[in-house]
Amino acid sequence: MSLTSTAPAARHSHRYLILGICCMSLLVVSMDSMAINVALPSIRRDFGSSVSGLQWTIDAYTMVLASFLILSGSTADRIGRRSTFQLGLAIFTLGSLLCSVAPGVGWLIAFRILQALGGSMLNPVAMSIITATFTVPKERARAVGVWSAVVGVSMAIGPLVGGALTDTVGWRGIFWINLPIGAAAIVLTAVFVPESRSGRRRRLDPFAQVLIVGMLAGLVSALIEGPQLGWTNPVTIGLFALFATSTASFVVWERRRAEPLIDLRFFHSIPFSAAVVTALAGYASNGAFLFLMTLYLQEVRHLSAFDAGLHTLPMAIAQVVCSNISGRLVGTRGTRLPLMLSSSALGLAALILTGLSPATPILLVLIVFLVYGIGQGLLNAPITTTAVSGMPPSQSGSAAGITSTARQVGTSLGVALAGTLTGIGAKSEITAAFTAHTHRMWWAMLGLMALVFVLAWLANSRIGRRSRERVADLLEDAPTPAHAPHVAAAAQA
User: For residue 11, with 0-12 CB atoms within 10 Å meaning exposed, 13-18 middle and 19 or more buried, which class applies?
Assistant: First the structure.
């Protein structure tokens, strides 16, 4: 695949400044996502919102991000990566400004959707700019390492920054902090980042994109609104019908496309399918865990937003450390061991939480955060490696991109399930009884981790390897997706 650029990327004199600009986008998006969780109780009190409103505050963002991740990569390859990156920064910054002045939870949800549209143009496109700028393998590896480290930093400081801002200037400050960073990144991008495009442009698949939005919107909406509307309510039934119809139509449509948005033949590979299900299960658990534990710490244990963020620090530190360990384990031992260790740690955290009560010792809660962080840190690297293992180089980017999308879908489903299984969606007040209601979610999380443990074994079994080899042969001559390299790198980061 060839690239056209306004300057030879490998010799660009400002390549480390370009890396810094790209990392700014990752920092602002990742930190915003972590900080908003800590602010949810404050948002509920200010707006008198039900818990389902808080769910939509999270899920409106992750659902839209998941829906448009792959499309944004293709668009950047077509119209130019710098232009798309600047547009994403502008939309994200505008969305942040509007979120900061939202007069009600409905408006906040709408502006979060706008934020997500901009966010979908940032991280994968920024990684594409990095891979085009750092063409020497050793330098590129260091650049991706810096990029990955920013993820850990944002996870560690996100809850603390969010808690500090919420306790001082209010939750709106979480969005204010995005404004100067976004504005600076737009200007710096215009001055220092060279334009680049793909030499081969994929045909767009707008109908498939619409069907993806229908699938996610139908399922997530039904899970969030079902408990308060009633499962037999015509609206709930209609939402599930939208999900089912969109899914069936998507399968039929994509099978007929010469260049599908998602190549369904990937799912004939047991390791790939296992990676997608693992991403869904792992990040559904993550979305539910962060959502419910934030409410528990502030609404049940009556901690301030900053103190609640401080309690998540063991999780963030463990996740940063164990993500590096996981990468080494994958390189030396394969994906089975880190996935089994990850699912065991996450399952242990869930098992402990099945006994959670308003009087649970804080030390035990901190231990749960630590164990959970270990499990989540071990999870990411083997998911991507399992997905792309055995795939032809021309298809590895698409495979990684699908699992990256599955992570966002999983987060949306986890937050939705948290409200469904606890039955708190329609409530605007959270009492001590809420803690007992969370136990259903922790048992569900334990079941999901048992599934991940089994899939880790199956993906690395003889049957799994044979299915992977058959699919690799089937895809060997398939056309190269234009957005493959940067989506793969972003997913691995």
Answer: exposed
